Each structure stands twice: as C-alpha cells, then as structure tokens.
Amino acid sequence: MKALLIRDLRLAVRAGGGFGLALAFFLILCTLVPFGVGPEGGQLSRIAPGILWVGALLACLLSLDRIFALDHEDGSLDLLATAPLPLEGAVAIKALAHWLTTGLPLVIFAPVLGLMLHLPGPAFPWLVVSLILGTPALSMLGAFGAAMTVGLRRGGLLLSLLVLPLYIPTLIFGAEAVRRGAIAADPAPPLVFLAAITLAVLALVPFAAAAALRVNLR
Amino acid sequence: MSIWEYANPVKFMRISGAILPWVAAGAAVCCIGGVVWGFLTPLDYRQGATVKIIFLHVPSALMAINGWLMMLVASLIWLIRRHHVSALVAKAAAPVGAVMTLIALVTGAIWGQPMWGTWWEWDPRLTSFLILFLFYLGYIALWASVEDADSAADLTSVLCLVGSVFALLSRYAVNFWNQGLHQGASLSVAPGERMSSVYKYPLYVSMLGFFLLFLALVLVRTRTEIRLRRLSALLARENRA
C-alpha cells in the first residue's frame, strides 16, 4: 500500500501536469470572478466563500481523469487488480494520492486567494478547516467517477456530469461553514455535517468505485 | 410459480404485450379525464385559474420521484439476480422519468410566475428537483456512452445506487442552505386535510393517469429494448456463420 502511494505521488510530481495545473486553474478562476462581478470589496467579500469553494471543487475535478486513465493505458491497472492488495484498498490509496497532490495544495493556497477576494478576517480559519474536512470527499467521489469512466472515449465530459451532482452536499455544507465564519455565526453544525459526509464517503465509496473498476477491466 | 418467472424475456414479452393496450387506454382515459375534470372545477378563491396546473404538476412530480425509485429497485435486482429484463426496465424508465421531472419543473415555473412572482426560486424543493434531473441526465449519458451492454447495466446500476444516496442527501442538505417558498405536501392521509375534495378527486384520477402513462411508456420502451437485443443477437449469429 505504501509502495503504491509513493509510486503515485512520485508519478504525479515528476510527470508534471496535475500538480500545478489545478492550482493554476484555481488562481485563474478566482481572478476571473472579479472581472465578472466587479471589483467592489463589499460584494466580493460576500460571495468569496462560495467562489473559493466552487473554485476548489472545479480545480479538483480537472485532474480526476488522471487517477486511473494513465494506469489503464499502460496496463498497470490490470496488475493492480490481480495484486494481493484488495482493489478497494488500491482505490482508496489512489484517492489519497490525488488528495495529497491536489486537495492539500488547494487547502494551503486557498487563504491567499481568500485575501485577494476580500474574505472577511474571521472566516480564514474556517475556510482552511472546511476545505481540509471536505476535499477528501471530493477526491474519493472523484475516484468513483474516474473508475466509472476509465475505459470510455469521451470520458472527460461524462465524468463531470456524473461527479458534479455528487459534490452538491459537500459544497453546501463547506461553503455554509465559511459563510457562517464570515458573519461570526457558529460554524460548527455545517462542519459536523461536512465531516460526517466525508467519513461516510471514505468508508463506503471505495467499494462502489472498486465494483465499477472491476466492470471496466472485464 | 414465483415472480421471477416474469424475468424470462419471452414470458415478459407475452404478458406485457397482452396488458399494454389496456394500460395505454387506461392512461389515455385517466389523463384526459383527470385534466378535463380538473379544468371544470371552480376557481380557487385565492389562486384563481392557476390552481388547475396542479393536475399536471403533482402527478408528474410524483412519477419523477417514483420513477427513480423504480430504477433503484430494478438496478438492485440486476446486481443481485442478474435478470436482463430488469436492467432494460431501468434503462427504459430513465428518459421517461427525466421528462416527468422536466414537466414538474416547467409547470412549477409557469405556476410560480403569477403566484410567487418569479419563474425560479432557489427553494429546497425546486432545487432538489433540479438535482434529481441532473442525476437522470448523468444516468442516461452513462447508458449512452458505454458500448458493452452488460458493462453498461452494471455501471449504471452502481451509479443509481450511489446517486440515490446522494440525491436523498442533497434533498435534506438544501433545507440547511435555504428556507423554502414551496408549500408542504398537497395531499396527506392525516386528518384535517388542507385540500378541498373538489380538487382532490380529479387529482387522484390524473395521478392514476400519469402512473398508467409511465407504465405504458416504460413497457413500450422495454419491449423495444428486448427486440433490439434479439436483433443484435441475430446479426451477431449471422456474422459468425
């Protein structure tokens, strides 16, 4: 398991692409929004929680197809399927690798973009906490979507259609927590729901994703 | 003699062929009857004539949700017992359910414009219906893009299971996110009902009509799918010979 994790991390860092690309996309999205809605600070700081969460979600989506596509092309996915490690475990490790290379950088980078979007001061810790709690669910659900579409030709577009509706609950609770932090309300209830969703997703979705992978490798 | 005998495509074709004309005729009678009867009801003292859209709105919303529920059951049967007819029924129901969702959304918008003064409001019920529509779209798109029929059935069944959980989760998550404008349930078995029987009985007729319509469309589409399977099997056999 550890070997697989290290291999995936090494591939992600050395092959380039996914790692920096998601961050650059996040930056561009947060740069475009003020062009669209105008530069007034008050308006920006009101919509900043939502923009940051939607941006993180889309940046996460961008690199999802890489979770399984490259391994499927060169056949290492078939080796993984026949390895003694259960496929569910392999899926979870791959999602973890995706989170470490995409989700975690987004979490670290988000406060900087929050500064650019005039996110109110008290919201910053809640932005980081909600992203830390929420992004693992995004990676795991993304791995499920990637497993569904791994063998398909027009997989990319279908992937977003399948995965984005699944992201809705995470987005609602994540953005709500930051918004409550911004107006100095109690952000605990949405954070608790967010954590519950993430834990349930981490516990159950690997089985669905592995089932989908087995079908696609048949 | 068990219910699983009807999973045999030949038997399914024979029985569905026999009941299809009756179901279709019943659907036509009840849909037209319910809507016309509904049209003849007196005007509501507050809502005026707009109240009559309920005879399209409520039945289609009902079938949109129950259509997804039926797909969920059919997907489970496919995953557990691998009856092909079950997978084909789920496939056949998806576009019908998606159209029902769309009808509910559109009639709701037409009703909402004069009543709430807006075509669309980010209300929990409206939003969760939109989310349900997105799930239908994803499900249909996945069926369309996987070539191997058995793989497609497996993948869409898994998607239906995961999607059901998340559709339900979204339904309650949106409550958290915005307070509603939509009224509560229109019908209820609890005493002290809110709806006058003048409207209730035509509504029941048109709900029955929409149910029969859904059934008839699903049967027709399933029969088409089975014939398509037979055709491709024949063609494959011919190519091999």
Automatic annotation (TrEMBL), chain A:
Its subcellular locations are:
Cell inner membrane
The transmembrane residues are 12-35, 47-64, 96-117, 123-144, 156-178, 190-213
One biological process GO term for this chain?
Answer: cytochrome complex assembly
At the top level, the lineage of the source is: Bacteria
GO molecular function terms listed in the Swiss-Prot or TrEMBL record: heme transmembrane transporter activity
Q: What is its main location?
A: membrane
Q: Which GO terms describe its cellular component?
A: plasma membrane
A Pfam family cross-referenced in the UniProt record is CcmB
Q: Which UniProt keywords apply?
A: Cell inner membrane, Cell membrane, Cytochrome c-type biogenesis, Membrane, Transmembrane, Transmembrane helix, Transport
> Which membrane topology describes this protein?
Multi-pass membrane protein
NCBIfam families xrefs: ccmB (TIGR01190)
Summarizing the function annotation, the protein's role is: Required for the export of heme to the periplasm for the biogenesis of c-type cytochromes.
Q: State the family it belongs to.
A: Belongs to the CcmB/CycW/HelB family.
Full protein name: Heme exporter protein B
Automatic annotation (TrEMBL), chain B:
The family classification in the record reads: Belongs to the CcmC/CycZ/HelC family.
Membrane topology is: Multi-pass membrane protein
Q: Which organism is it from?
A: Paracoccus laeviglucosivorans
User: In terms of domain of life, where is this protein from?
Assistant: Bacteria
Naming one, the record's GO cellular component terms include: plasma membrane
Is Transmembrane found in the keyword set? Answer: yes
Per the UniProt record, the lineage of the source organism begins with:
Bacteria, Pseudomonadati, Pseudomonadota, Alphaproteobacteria, Rhodobacterales
Protein's recorded name: Heme exporter protein C
Q: Which PANTHER family match?
A: CYTOCHROME B_B6 PROTEIN-RELATED (PTHR30071:SF1), HEME EXPORTER PROTEIN C (PTHR30071)
Q: Pfam families, alphabetically?
A: Cytochrom_C_asm
